[in-house]
Structures are given as structure tokens and as C-alpha cells.
Design a protein that fits this description.
alpha/beta, AAA+_ATPase (chains A, B), ABC_transporter-like_ATP-bd (chains A, B), ATP-binding (chains A, B), ATP binding (chains A, B), 287 residues, ABC transporter ATP-binding protein (chains A, B), homodimer, 4-stranded antiparallel beta sheet
Chain lengths: 287, 287
């Protein structure tokens, strides 16, 4: 079931086409990775989807209703990003209460459990929290607010490994108790990849890849051997990157392959999502 | 050969003992990971080692000479951290020239190569760079300045996967051409672990782990099976963490083990460095 639909969306800033004719659908109750390098338009897209900014052209709908000036639709979305929307003088506890007043049905029980796990003091003022703990406070709000669409723009930026681990565990926990749509951007692609159902990869304002993680992973390979063997084996395949180490070459392939390697002295391994996206973002560049 | 030695170092901020009686040695020409959660004292230690701040007690020496007020010693160190030391009106090219004037023998050739790889425009003013590109500019300076000790405090913060990949490649490149000591703090433990010779893990201001990565990895295991089997197999081992998934239990072990599993229906796998450090940082906490 398609819930959010993005139609022919364009966004121009300072004469630059940041998003180019984007068409996308987000299914209900799935976890999406919205991935791409810095500056490709991910944050812009999330700001457009929650109408924090308005598109140059095109529109976004939820269940067929345009979100523009549509409070009912916008009330179903929550965006966490680097903006701090809370007054620095508000205590964490007051932020939870305020969110409850705005959205209703705030999950105080889960918020308290998470605050304990993350070691977040509910009596501290938002302005007194470290950068990491401000993010943690915003993560807890995002997980406890009763919306159908949770957009998380770089939710782990600046978090240490222990806190990231808690974040991933909390996401699995809240999603399994209350399946809803999560749209997550992150530069920690290999870590987040384990949680995703779908991957949307943006490069230079365009959608380069949009598929389920299973299908993507089924087509992602690293082929290693002598350069001649690897070249020969991959001659009809979609080679998206190459690396040489001494006499060995590794060709990265995004394609359907069969494992008939008998006549070649090569090793076929899975390529992880991070390597795939690095290769895709470098296609067309030299070196 | 020990080059940097830290002797009985203590640091107190606001009546809090941030670093507690630290004793450490850094060998010449090795790559160290200085790892730990946010707020454990890693940045403080790096600031002390480059005398940007002074210790409450204890001292640091290079080749037996105290670094205090010792310009010859301090000239051999370079620290990259989140502080921006350059005037926003300086162009990248001017920053390279300025570094050459201060330290001499700046590697302009490598700086130009890296700028091209990272797509950093030498004519842009530092103040006009995005956060990511400011970091990239500082990384290039750190790799091209002719010092014996390069300290990198969170050099990949905010970099996307593609730029992090270029950073790791550049580090391998510069280290292999000119082996020198790198001391690197990072929250992306699994990514950085492939580059490290030694790991120093700090928790609550104390050194918890200090060893070569080979030895650490040789002792890091995840044991999975039924709870009874896993409990029985690990009864005399150093269990540092546990996880349950349905009927299966995984116990994380930091110990020497032999692989005699015949009488147990268990699976023994390697535990990665990130999981090890998460476990070590949570010892003593409930849950």
C-alpha cells in the first residue's frame, strides 16, 4: 500500500537544481534508507516532505491528498533533523509534555524507559545538554510521538558506538511493537543497512537506486582475481568500480550473475551496501 | 622504541577527575586508536599531549624530554580537532602556505593530489567551506605537515561514506610512504579498526584496554547456543556481555579460548572491535 507519493518534484536554490524531477513512493509500515553523499538533496527532500519548505514545482501527497496547507496530513509526520526546535530553557520532561500537547498520545512509558537506557536526565534543560544528548532527546521524542511517518535525518551524527547501538535496538523495539514508516538518512551505511527494508539512493539530485534491500544485495558482488580473469569474467556485466592491490584486481559488479566460475580463477564475494553506494556515486569520475 | 610517554597524568575540571592517573607509551611509527565513548577524556588527553591545556598533575615527555614549554618537542606534533584555527578569510591555498611557513617542508604535491581527490577548491575561503569540507581541509594539512606525531580527534565526523573512504585510503597511502605515529580517535570503530596497530580504550577517565589489535582480536569471541550450553561452556571464561534472541543466547567473551566445543552445541565466532568496546563500556551497568 502506497502512502506517501512524491510527484515530479523540483527544487531550485540559488539557480541550482538541487532536486531534479523526483518521483517516489513510500509504502506503509516499512523502513527506508534515504542515502547519498553530503549535499545531494536528502535533507531538502525531508524538509519538503514535512512542508518546512515549499517545492519549486511538483507536489507531495499522503493517501492521495496533497500535503500543502493540509494540517491533518502534516500532523501524521515527524521530522528529526539538526535543527533544535526547543527552547534551551525547557527541561527534557517539559519537552515530552509539550509534544504530548501538540500530537497527543505521547508514549511516556517508552520515553522513560529509553531515557533510562540512554542515561538522559529528565530534569536537565535542553540548552544544558551536550550535542550528543540533544540528539538523544530528539530521538526519544521521535520514537514516542504517535505519527505514521517518522523521518530521521542523520539521527546518529556525533553519537558514540554505545549510543548508536542503543538507537538501533530502540528502533527495532519500537518498530516491532508498532510498525510504521521510518525514513532514515545516515552516512553510516553499513550499520543502518541491517535495519532497512528499502534503499533510496540519491546522487546529484536524482534517484539512482530505489529497491528493496534484498534485491539490491542479491545483485551486489566483488569479483577478485588476476586482472585478465576478472576482466574476462565481467565482460558482459555491469561493472561499477575497480580496485587494484598488487597483482590482484577487484571489480565491483551490480548485476545478476550466475556462479559458473569453473574456467576462471576468481573469487566472488558479496559487496556490502556502503561499497555499492560509494561505487555508484563515483561513476563517471576519473580514477 | 617508545617515543611519547605519559606519566601519572591527572586532569580535574570543575571538581571532576576527567583523567585518572594515566600512564601510557606511544611507540614510533605506529597507528593508534584512542577509543572510548563521548565524554571519557579522549579529547582532553589529546589537548594535553599537544599542550593546548596544562595537566593538573603528571607530565608528558618525548624521547625523555618533558614537553612543557618545549617548542622543539611541540613542533613535532600536529593535532586536528573540531577547533577551527584558521581565519575564515584565508583561502585553502593560503592555509597550505601558512602551514609551510610555520612547520617548513609542507608536502604541497600530496596536498594538491588530495585536494583533487576530495574535490576541494583551493581558491575557496575557509569560512565559505561546508562543515565537511572544513574537516577535509584540516585532514589534508594534517597529512602534509612534516611532523613525527599526527593526532586526529574525530577526523571523519560528518564526512559521508565516500569521503571517509578517501580519508582511509589517504591515511594508508601517506603512512606507507612515510611511516610515522598516528593517534586517532573515532566513534566509527569498525571502520577505523582495519587501519590500527594498537588500541587504547578509555572509560571514565581510565585506561581499560591497551594492546595490539592482533592480540585483542585473538581474544574476542561471540559464543552462541542454548543458554545452558553457552553458560556451561563459558563458566571459567571472562564474559563481558550477553544478548538473548528468542531461545538463543550469545555471550561475549574476552579471553583465551580453545575451540574444543565437541560436548557443546554452540557456535564460536569472532567478535568485532566495536562490539568488544560496547561490552567493556557497559560492564557494571544493569541490563
Amino acid at each position: 500500500m502506497t502512502e506517501i507519493k512524491i510527484n515530479d518534484l523540483n527544487q531550485v536554490f540559488n539557480h541550482q537544481n538541487v532536486l531534479k524531477n523526483i518521483n517516489l513512493e513510500f509504502k506503509n509500515k516499512a523502513i527506508y534508507g534515504l542515502l547519498g553523499n553530503n549535499g545531494v538533496g536528502k535533507s531538502t527532500l525531508m524538509n519538503l516532505m514535512t512542508e518546512r519548505i515549499l517545492p519549486t514545482s511538483g507536489y507531495i501527497s499522503i493517501n492521495g491528498h496533497n500535503i500543502h496547507n493540509n494540517d491533518v496530513a502534516l500532523q501524521q509526520m515527524y521530522l528529526l533533523n539538526e535543527d533544535d526546535m526547543y527552547s534551551p530553557s525547557l527541561k527534557v520532561r517539559q519537552i515530552f509534555n509539550l509534544t504530548n500537547e501538540i500530537y497527543g498520545n505521547f508514549n511516556f512509558k517508552f520515553a522513560k524507559l529509553l531515557s533510562k537506557k540512554f542515561d538522559l536526565n529528565l530534569s536537565l534543560k535542553f540548552g544544558k545538554l551536550s550535542t550528543g544528548y540533544r540528539t538523544i532527546c530528539k530521538i526519544i521524542v521521535a520514537f514516542c510521538v504517535p505519527v505514521k511517518y517518522v523521518l530521521l535525518d542523520e539521527p546518529t551524527l556525533g553519537l558514540d558506538a554505545n549510543h548508536r547501538n542503543l538507537f538501533y535496538e530502540a528502533l527495532i523495539n519500537t518498530y516491532s511493537h508498532n510498525p510504521r514508516t521510518f525514513i532514515i538518512s545516515s552516512h553510516l551505511i553499513n550499520e543502518i543497512s541491517k535495519l532497512l527494508n528499502y534503499v533510496i539512493f540519491i546522487n546529484n539530485g536524482k534517484i539512482i537506486l530505489n529497491n528493496s534491500i534484498e534485491i539490491i544485495m542479491k545483485n551486489s558482488f566483488a569479483i577478485t582475481g588476476s586482472k585478465d580473469d576478472v576482466k574476462q569474467y565481467t565482460r558482459n556485466l555491469n561493472v561499477i568500480g575497480k580496485r587494484n592491490l598488487g597483482k590482484l584486481s577487484t571489480f565491483y559488479v551490480y548485476d545478476h550473475i550466475n556462479n559458473q566460475t569453473k574456467s576462471f580463477n576468481i573469487k566472488i564475494e558479496k559487496m556490502n551496501l556502503q561499497r555499492l553506494l560509494i561505487c555508484l556515486s563515483n561513476i563517471g569520475k576519473e580514477g
